[in-house]
Amino acid sequence: MKPKYEHDCERCVFLGNYQNSDLYFCPQGSLPTVIARWADAKEDPSAYVSGLAFAKSTDMKKAISVTQADNVHESAHAASLRVAFLIAKDAKLVL
Asked: If both were cysteines, with which of 45, 63, 71, 84 could 57 make a disulfide (CB 3.0 to 4.6 Å apart)?
């Protein structure tokens, strides 16, 4: 499995694809995160969502409403971020 979209961080670990998103784990120092990207970084640098605390949420209805408040309007992106977290957790990249 390969990323569909160009990503601009060499530290990120590609986790796989879900729906129309590439999923990543980024250790980024002391604040690790998960990322769901749905377009090339050069074409649309803002075409991603990230957030480990959000992705850990088991209440997806609440998490999606929080995401919408942050201008991420599609629940698919929220679901992709949750899947990224679950893969990273399974790979023991996050607790």
From this structure: 63
- Residue 44: what residue type? D
Whole-angstrom Cα distance, residue 71 to residue 92? 30
Amino acid (1-letter code) at residue 66: V
Other residues' Cβ atoms within 10 Å of the Cβ of residue 35: 25
Distance of CA 71 to the CA centre of its chain: 15
CA distances from 67 to 29, 44, 73 (A): 24, 19, 7
Residue 80: helix, strand or coil by DSSP? helix
CA distance 52 to 89: 11
φ, ψ of residue 26 to 5 degrees: the values are -125, 120
Look at residue 72 and tell me whether its pLDDT is greater than 50: no
For the chain, domain boundaries: 13-90
Q: What length does the chain have?
A: 95
